[in-house]
Amino acid sequence: MTRTGASPAPPDGVLSLRSARVKAARQLAKRAFRDRGRSFLAEGPQAVREALRRPGIVTELFVTGQGRARHADVVGLAAAAGIAVHDVGAEVMSELAQTITPQGVVAVCRFIDVSLAAALAGTPRLVAVLVSVRDPGNAGTVLRTADAAGADAVIFAAASVDPYNAKCVRSSAGSLFHLPVVAGAALAEVITGLRGAGLQVLAADGSARLLLDDTPGPDLTRPTAWLFGNEAWGLPASLLELADAAVAVPIYGQAESLNLAAAAAVCLYASARHGRDC
Asked: How far apart are CA 268 and CA 126, in angstroms?
């Protein structure tokens, strides 16, 4: 008999909150444990599906009964790859997913970030650099936008948020698994590496005199790395001086400014359009 106030025992084969596997996965909500195990959680069918398309990234999958029924393709991909699939109840899923309405699938994934040298190998044409960007939702959205714009890499530099933060992973909508990501790179090394790879360095700065659509404006036919700064205070003056140019997105209406993710989208797509034309 179940004691009053205690959770009922799960059916046979369904992992409980006391399971060692569940406990280990729950710890990945904290950065220290993610860094120690070089593993993180990907939540939802889109993110998990994209992770599964890269062999060797997903190590185990947690799924509810509803998740198994609704996302049979995801479960099938995991099973076909020999990945352990664990059945859990709604209580466990709510602890793992960290969202109000979990979608019933969470995967444990290995870290996928690469070195700066690896990200800039070859002939990159478009790179996004996040400088002290703290909001994980913004960072994930910029990553997703960079992917959509055909960027060759995204670099998280200078105390930016952890790319494996659960909200950042969700906001990237699977794009985290599509292009090279560099985590925790030192800014001086980033600037040196970008120039060594033949990229011009443009700083997105709302107070810059040069506007994105000026004639003549920045030469976006050249391979370009865009620097995007902190949501509240932008890019430091010392970094603006290191850039080849500071560029502002023009404001035609009465809005005071654009938020980070919107400004990044405008800049990245401007480069993508010019890059495709050349």
From this structure: 8
Instruction: Give whole-number Cα distances, 231 to 51, 146, 185, in Å.
Output: 29, 17, 19
pTM score over 0.70: yes
Q: For residues 141 and 100, what is the distance between their CA atoms, to the nearest angstrom?
A: 20
How much is the pLDDT for 158? 77
Are 14-110 and 116-277 equal in CATH topology?
A: no
d(CA 160, CA 73): 34
**What tokens were used for 38?**
């070089």
CA distances from 223 to 55, 82, 152, 195, 258 (A): 31, 41, 10, 10, 24
The gap between the terminal CA atoms of the chain, to the nearest Å, is 73
Least Cα distance to 97 among 153, 22, 190 occurs for 22
Q: Which two tokens stand for residue 179?
A: 């292009």
**How far is Cα 134 from Cα 266, in angstroms, rounded to an integer?**
20
Distance, in Å, from the CA atom of 128 to the CA atom of 147, rounded to the nearest integer, reads 10
Instruction: Convert the pLDDT of each residue in 233-267 to its tens digit.
Output: 999 999 999 999 999 999 999 998 899 999 999 99
Fold designation for 14-110: 60s Ribosomal Protein L30; Chain: A; (3.30.1330)
* Domain at 116-277, CATH class: alpha beta
- Written as six digits, the tokens of 15 are 């992992």
Q: Which segments of the chain does DSSP mark as H helices, in order?
A: 20-27, 31-37, 45-52, 65-70, 72-80, 90-97, 116-119, 136-148, 166-172, 187-196, 237-242, 260-277
The structural domains of the chain, with segments of one domain joined by +, span 14-110, 116-277
Closest CA to 81 of 62, 63, 106, 59: 59
List the structure tokens of 258. 């654009």
